[in-house]
Amino acid sequence: MTVHSPLTSQMIASHLRLPDGAGPVAALAAHLLRDGLLSGDQMLRALTLYAKRGGRLTDILLTRERLPRDQLYAALARHWDTALVDPGAARPDVRLIDRLGATACLRYQILPLRRIGGVTLVATARPEEFETHLPRLVQLFGPVAMVVSLPDKLEAALLRRRGQQLAQAAETRVPQTESCRDLGRERLVFPAACLVVGLGLLALLRPDLALWIGAIWAVGTLLLSTLLKIATGLASATGSAPRALPLPHGNLPTVSLLVALYRESDIAPRLIRRLGRIDYPQELLDIVLVVEAHDSLTRAALARADLPPWMRVVTVPAGRIKTKPRALNYALDHCRGSIIGVYDAEDAPEPQQINRVVAHFHARGPKVACLQGILDFYNPTTNWLSRCFTVEYAVWFRMVLPGLARLGLPVPLGGTTLFFRRDALEALGGWDAHNVTEDADLGIRLARRGYQTELIATVTGEEANCRAYPWIRQRSRWLKGYMMTWVSHMRDPALLWRQLGAWRFFGFQVLFLCTLSQFLLAPLLWSFWITLFGLPHPVADALPPAIVVLLVGVFLLTELTNVTMGWLALAQTRHRFSRLWVPTMHFYFPLGALASYKALWEAVVKPFYWDKTMHGRYDAGA
Question: Are residue 158 and residue 179 in the same domain, yes or no?
Answer without folding.
Answer: no
